[in-house]
Amino acid sequence: MRVPPGLTTALVSADTGAADVVDRLGRYTASDTRWGGIPLRDVEIGEVRRRVLVSDNESYLFAGALREVLDPHGDHTDAEIGTALHVAGADDVVTSMPDGLDSAVEPQGRNLSGGQRQRVRLARALLFDPEVLLLVEPTSAVDAHTESTIAERLHEARSGRTTVVAGTSPLLLDRADLVVLLVDGRVTAVGTHGELLDRPDYRTLVFRGASDDENGRGGADDEGTPR
Prior knowledge:
The protein contains ten helices and ten strands. With 227 residues, the protein is α/β, with parallel strands linked by helices. Helix 4 packs across helix 6 (114-128).
């Protein structure tokens, strides 16, 4: 498969295939991935880490003030941090904490809800503003309203930069410029979400995923915070 530069590409699979591709693109798994015609394995690892960012729901959250969790190197203004939080649908994370951006966050965000942790991770990734951003299920812990907002804002915020999203959320897929369907690790179809809905296998996968999400998010409130 080919990831077009400057666009948002969604990867859809019934198993771990999409996440496995993300690991290859981020050089966390050995592969024959090429970047601009150059084998990714031949690119200095520091260069890869500077230009390609993988963010998933296992990404570590260090303890410290929320501001430091989002911006570990202190490279950004509060306004820039606020913009990233807004795109990630996480404005409420700041307002719900006693000291705003100066509020203490426990290791791995233990004092945050699952939906808050997920959105903080997304905001942190957006604030880094990498050349290539690879996201795995970035909205699986939020409610549908919040997810729709994030999908729209994410597409706009990443306009002109390369973004890959692995997941089966119809809301995210509908905002992607291109959707790639993977079956057993192989590309079986490429197109827009609307175009691929004509395929029974894609339609079944996406709506099954949406049904699973509804069941999994049954206790989420409007802010994506599990009760």
